[in-house]
């Protein structure tokens, strides 16, 4: 679990290292605020993918239209999430996650897909790994390999520092099962 006391202590140390006075009015509550923010924005670090799969495993049997081998597809588009890059601890923003799967006898509650995407974003991440984590969790819940996760996002480590390309966005595709080699399916994404 996240060690809140240690975070407070280290944030205070960073304030000192920056040459500021951690006891001045504007900063005295900052270590506590940052620790509380980290508890919120890094909540997903408390759980494994398997634990997240168990947490949001709310499925419904769906006989009609979801026969094995059919071309039925569920797509949830543009789920907005935030994350933090593991290289700079910098914010990833304007992140839009699109998830598609081919149901194999059961469907997952739609809001659970968004909850899974949110929770996976709440870790120190790479955009590519956000996609593979979401895919791994959905494959476990839905009992199928036919899952696609597409993410488009902006990395503040690229827009607000370093190379400073503020129009640059990154798009990643995580395609499994039939999404890997079925061009017709991919055109519907
Ligand atoms: N593949 C991938 N790279 C990322 C992601 N987030 C940040 N990065 C990149 O991680 C790389 C880290 O590169 P380094 O050379 O170690 O870091 P740096 O010296 O700060 O590099 P610059 O960003 O080029 O100034 C950078 O190119 C970042 O743009 C991500 O989600 N996926
Ligand atoms: Zn970064």
TrEMBL record:
Positions contributing to Zn(2+) binding: 85, 88, 157
Concerning SUPFAM superfamilies, the annotation shows: Tetrahydrobiopterin biosynthesis enzymes-like
Reactions listed under catalytic activity: GTP + H2O = 7,8-dihydroneopterin 3'-triphosphate + formate + H(+)
GO CC, sorted alphabetically, is: cytoplasm
Any single biological process term in GO: tetrahydrobiopterin biosynthetic process
Gene Ontology molecular functions: GTP binding; GTP cyclohydrolase I activity; zinc ion binding
Pathway, per Swiss-Prot/TrEMBL? Cofactor biosynthesis; 7,8-dihydroneopterin triphosphate biosynthesis; 7,8-dihydroneopterin triphosphate from GTP: step 1/1
**Coiled-coil segments, which residues?**
none
Cited InterPro entries: GTP-CH-I_C/QueF (IPR043133), GTP-CH-I_N (IPR043134), GTP_CycHdrlase_I (IPR001474), GTP_CycHdrlase_I_CS (IPR018234), GTP_CycHdrlase_I_dom (IPR020602)
User: Which residue intervals define the domain GTP cyclohydrolase I in the entry?
Assistant: 7-183
Question: A Pfam family for this UniProt protein?
Answer: GTP_cyclohydroI
Q: What residues form the membrane-spanning segments?
A: none
- Give the highest taxon in the source lineage: Bacteria
Give the record's keywords alphabetically.
GTP-binding, Hydrolase, Metal-binding, Nucleotide-binding, One-carbon metabolism, Zinc
- This entry's Enzyme Commission designation comes to 3.5.4.16
On assembly, the entry states:
Homopolymer.
Family designation: Belongs to the GTP cyclohydrolase I family.
- Name this protein carries in UniProt: GTP cyclohydrolase 1
User: What is the organism of origin for this protein?
Assistant: Butyribacter intestini
């Amino acid at each position: 679990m996240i060690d809140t006391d240690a975070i407070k202590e280290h944030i205070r140390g960073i304030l000192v290292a920056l040459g500021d006075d951690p006891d001045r009015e504007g900063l005295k509550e900052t270590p506590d605020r940052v620790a509380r923010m980290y508890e919120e924005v890094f909540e997903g670090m408390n759980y494994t993918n398997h634990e997240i799969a168990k947490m949001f495993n709310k499925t419904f049997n769906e006989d009609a239209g979801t026969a094995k081998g059919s071309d039925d597809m569920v797509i949830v588009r543009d789920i907005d999430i935030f994350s933090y890059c593991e290289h700079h601890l910098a914010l990833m923003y304007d992140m839009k996650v699109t998830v598609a799967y081919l149901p194999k006898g059961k469907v997952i509650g739609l809001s659970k897909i968004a909850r899974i995407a949110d929770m996976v974003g709440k870790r120190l991440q790479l955009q590519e790994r956000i996609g593979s984590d979401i895919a791994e969790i959905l494959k476990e819940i839905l009992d199928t390999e036919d899952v696609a996760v597409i993410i488009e996002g902006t990395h503040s480590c690229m827009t607000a520092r370093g190379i400073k390309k503020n129009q640059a966005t990154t798009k990643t595709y995580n395609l499994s099962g039939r999404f890997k080699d079925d061009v017709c399916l991919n055109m519907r994404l």
